[in-house]
Amino acid sequence: MNPSILSNLDRVLTSPLVAALTAPYGVDRFLEPFNPMWSATQVRGRIEAVQRQTRDSVTITVRPNRHWQGFVAGQYARIEVEIDGVRRSRCYSLASAAPGRDGAVEFTIKQQDGGLVSTFLYAYAQVGMVLGLSQAEGEFVLPESPTTPLLLVAGGSGITPVMSMLRTLDGRVSSAPVSMLYYVRTAADAIYGDELAALFARHASWQLRVIHTRDGGSHFSPAHVDALVADLAAVDTYVCGPAALIDALIALSAERGCEARLRHERFTAPVSTAVIDPNTVSGELRFIRSERLATNDGRSLLDQAEAAGLRPEAGCRMGICHSCTCRKTSGVVRDLRSGKLSSDGEEDIQICVSAAVGDVTLDL
Amino acid sequence: MARSRSLTKTPNPSIRSAPQQPSKPLTANTLSLTPAQIEAFGKEMDAIRERVLGDLGQRDADYIRDIVKLQRGLEIAGRAMLQFGWLPPAFVGGVAALGASKILDNMEIGHNVMHGQYDWMQDPQLNSRKYDWDTACPADQWRHSHNVMHHTYTNVLGVDRDVGYGLLRMDENQPWHPIFLANPVFAFLLASLFQYGVALHDAEFDRILSGERPLSEAMPLLKGIWKKTRGQWLKDYALFPLLAGPGAPITFVGNAMANLVRNYWTFTIIFCGHFPADVQTFDKSTLANETRGQWYLRQLLGSANIEGGKWFHIFSGNLSHQIEHHLFPDLPAHRYAEMSVEVRKVCEKFGLPYNTGSLRKQFGSVVAKIFKLALPPRSAMLPVTA
C-alpha cells in the first residue's frame, strides 16, 4: 500500500478521538486480535522464508510492519515469541544489509542447549509466523563511511552482525579493505560459508580466512591476525563470538596499544538454573529503581525489600492478590509455596512468595 | 490493613472451637474437623492448585485470546449496529452485542485478568497491573478493594466490604436499623447502578456519608473514579451518539441499555457468590493467626456456586464457580469447571458442605434474604424470656 496512505492511517488511528472511542483499551487492542501485524504502534514481523544452513541454526527472513525504523549494520533486535502460552524474548543480531528500512530483514539463530527461544525458533519457525520485534539497538556498528581498513573477527554464530556489515559494505560503491577471520568447528558448521566465499571473491581488496577449530585448525592465536593484517593499530577491529575469543582480542589489542580501535559484541549464554542449589542462601538483592542493595537472607523478597526501607505495593502477602507483582530483571527466585525455581531471565514475579536464589535484581 | 502473614503458622483452632463466636454458628461438619484435618484439607487444595499451575500453557493462552477476540468483535458489531439504531433489529442486536461485550470484558476478561490469572503469560495486554476495563471503577482501586480486601478477608464482617457493599443488610449480624426497611429498594438501585456501586466501593462512600471517613481521605480515589467515569461517558454518551448524526438519541439510549444489561447481569452473578442461604460469615477474630488451611476453609464456607452450561459459565466470568474462584483466585477461571470435580471430592472426604444450585435457586435465596433482612431480627421482636 502507498506509504503516505499508511502514515495518514496511523495518524488517524493514534488520534485522541480514536483513543477516546476505544477507551480504555486503545486502538491496538481492537486490531491485534484480528491480525497481529496491524498494530498501530508496535513493531511486528512476519516470517517470509526459513532456511536451515547448518545442523544447529535457522535463518529466517522477516518482513517487519511499517513501524520498523531500520537499523545500522551490526545492531540487534529483540525477537518475541510465544512458547506454550508464555511470551519469551531474546536479542538476535540482524544479518541482512543495512539500513533495511523497507523490505525484509534476516536473522540467523543458533540453537543453544537449554535455550528456550533459540530451540523454539529452530524447531518451529515457519513462513507466516508473526514475531514481536523491538527497534534495532546496539553500539557494535560500522562507522557511517569507513575510511580505514577493517579487521572482522567472528566465532561461530558471532558471524551474524559481521555478515550484516559485509553485506552492507558490499552494497557500497567503494569500500576500504576488509580482512576477516572466521572461527567455526568444521566446514559444516560455517553459517553463510558459500556466500562469504562469493563475497570475498568479488572484492580484490578483501581477504578471508576460515579456521576449522575441530578440523585441523586451532583456536585464536595472534599469528592469525598477523598473517592477515600488517599492523593491528592501523585497522578498526570488530569481534563477535564466544567470550574466550573476545578476551583474547582485547588482550592482544591492549598489548599492541590499540584498544580504542577494538569493538566487540558478547553473547551471554543463558545460565542453567539446575546448577543452583536452592537451599543455600547467598547473593545480593539489588533494588535498581531505589538504588538499594541488601544481602539476601532467604526471606521473601517483599520482606527483605521492606527491611531495606522500601515500601513496595503489597496486599495479601500470601500470593493471591498479585498487588506486589514486580519486574525481576535478573536472577533466579524460588516460589515459597511450591519450591519451584524460576528462570533467570527478565519476568514478572510475586515478591511476597518469592525468595532469591543467589543474586537477584528487581525493578523496585 | 497490611497484615503480615507467614505461610507456615501453627494451626490455630479458632474456626474449629469457635470461641470468638463466629457470626453464624458453624455447621456440625465443620466443627468436627480437627486442626490437623483442616491443614490436611489445605494441603489437598494446594495439591489441586499445583497440578493446574504445572499444566498451564498454550491451551489457556489460546482460550483467553479467543475470548478477547470474541469480546472485541462483539463490541465492534454492537457499536456498529447502534449507529443504525433507528432500525429496530439493529437496535436490539446492538444492545445485545454491546451488552454482551461489556459483560465479557468485565467478567471473564477484566475481573480474571486483574486477578493475575494470566500474568504467567508475560503478555502486557493480559497483565494484572496493566489491564483496564470498560467500567466506571479504576483498575487500581479495584485491585485493592477486590483482590486484597475481599479475597483476603472474604466474608469477615467489618473487614470484607463486599458484605452488603456498605449499603445493604445482607447478614443477620449486621445490626438492624429502620433504614433497612428499604433494603429491597437499595438492592434494586444498586443493581441498576452496579458499575458505580462497584466504583465507589474502595472510596468507602457509605463511611464518608456517615462521617466516619473524612472526604479528604477519599478525594484521590474519587478523582480517579471521576476520570474513569468521564472517559466512559464521553465514549458511550457523547462520541458514539454524535457519530450517529441524527440517530444520536437512539445510540445514546442503546448504549445506556447495554450498560444497564451489564449492570443487572453482573449484580445477579456477584450476589449469588456470597449471599445465598447457608453461606457463612465470620468474625474478625477468625483472622488472628489464621493458617493457610483455615483460610481455604473460610473461602469454601463463604462462597456459593451456580450450576449452568458452558456459555453461562463464560458469561458469568466463571464466577459461577465462586468456590473454586475463592480457593484459587489467581488460576485461569476457565479451569474452575474441571477443578470443581476434585474440590467436591475433597469436600465429601472431609464432610464439608459445598454450596451449589441453579441460578433460580441461588438468586431466589439472595432475593429472599434481601427482603427478610429488611425486617428487624425476629428475636428482637419477641418478648425476652428467661
UniProtKB/TrEMBL annotation, chain A:
<dbReference type="InterPro" id="IPR001041">
    <property type="entry name" value="2Fe-2S_ferredoxin-type"/>
</dbReference>
<dbReference type="InterPro" id="IPR001433">
    <property type="entry name" value="OxRdtase_FAD/NAD-bd"/>
</dbReference>
<dbReference type="GO" id="GO:0016491">
    <property type="term" value="F:oxidoreductase activity"/>
</dbReference>
<feature type="domain" description="FAD-binding FR-type">
    <location>
        <begin position="40"/>
        <end position="143"/>
    </location>
</feature>
<dbReference type="InterPro" id="IPR036010">
    <property type="entry name" value="2Fe-2S_ferredoxin-like_sf"/>
</dbReference>
<dbReference type="Pfam" id="PF00111">
    <property type="entry name" value="Fer2"/>
</dbReference>
<dbReference type="Pfam" id="PF00970">
    <property type="entry name" value="FAD_binding_6"/>
</dbReference>
<dbReference type="GO" id="GO:0051536">
    <property type="term" value="F:iron-sulfur cluster binding"/>
</dbReference>
<dbReference type="InterPro" id="IPR017927">
    <property type="entry name" value="FAD-bd_FR_type"/>
</dbReference>
<dbReference type="InterPro" id="IPR017938">
    <property type="entry name" value="Riboflavin_synthase-like_b-brl"/>
</dbReference>
<dbReference type="InterPro" id="IPR050415">
    <property type="entry name" value="MRET"/>
</dbReference>
<protein>
    <submittedName>
        <fullName>Ferredoxin-NADP reductase</fullName>
    </submittedName>
</protein>
<dbReference type="InterPro" id="IPR039261">
    <property type="entry name" value="FNR_nucleotide-bd"/>
</dbReference>
<dbReference type="InterPro" id="IPR008333">
    <property type="entry name" value="Cbr1-like_FAD-bd_dom"/>
</dbReference>
<dbReference type="InterPro" id="IPR012675">
    <property type="entry name" value="Beta-grasp_dom_sf"/>
</dbReference>
<dbReference type="Pfam" id="PF00175">
    <property type="entry name" value="NAD_binding_1"/>
</dbReference>
UniProtKB/TrEMBL annotation, chain B:
<dbReference type="GO" id="GO:0006629">
    <property type="term" value="P:lipid metabolic process"/>
</dbReference>
<feature type="transmembrane region" description="Helical">
    <location>
        <begin position="179"/>
        <end position="198"/>
    </location>
</feature>
<keyword id="KW-0812">Transmembrane</keyword>
<protein>
    <submittedName>
        <fullName>Fatty acid desaturase</fullName>
    </submittedName>
</protein>
<feature type="domain" description="Fatty acid desaturase">
    <location>
        <begin position="90"/>
        <end position="356"/>
    </location>
</feature>
<dbReference type="InterPro" id="IPR012171">
    <property type="entry name" value="Fatty_acid_desaturase"/>
</dbReference>
<feature type="region of interest" description="Disordered">
    <location>
        <begin position="1"/>
        <end position="28"/>
    </location>
</feature>
<keyword id="KW-0472">Membrane</keyword>
<dbReference type="GO" id="GO:0016717">
    <property type="term" value="F:oxidoreductase activity, acting on paired donors, with oxidation of a pair of donors resulting in the reduction of molecular oxygen to two molecules of water"/>
</dbReference>
<dbReference type="Pfam" id="PF00487">
    <property type="entry name" value="FA_desaturase"/>
</dbReference>
<dbReference type="InterPro" id="IPR005804">
    <property type="entry name" value="FA_desaturase_dom"/>
</dbReference>
<keyword id="KW-1133">Transmembrane helix</keyword>
<dbReference type="GO" id="GO:0016020">
    <property type="term" value="C:membrane"/>
</dbReference>
